[in-house]
Amino acid sequence: MRTVIIAVVTIIIETILLWLLSLWIGVNIMEILLLGGISIFGVVWFFQHGSTYASNQVNSMTRGWTGLDAGGVRVFRFKFGPIVFGLLIFILISLVITVVYYGGDLA
């Protein structure tokens, strides 16, 4: 239940942020909905990757300079928590909304 609440709050916050961004740059929210969702997901992925990279770099430097075992090098594994789950649901919802919104122009 806690995961669902955090995911829903994530979706609401992401929607508000993208809506405010669309107002700020003066475009329709439909123009940035899908790409904004993917971009925010990418930022989260880069932060997780950067954290693992920095940890591996520190552990390697410690081992190289002192010879002490500082934990070794870890393989990057993307963590799926409730926030990432909410981001992925937002991307899926925005994809459906975008296809319905722009698909109506094709018919």
From TrEMBL:
It comes from Pontibacillus yanchengensis Y32. This is DUF3899 domain-containing protein. The chain crosses the membrane at residues 6-25, 32-48, 83-104. Keywords: Membrane, Transmembrane, Transmembrane helix.
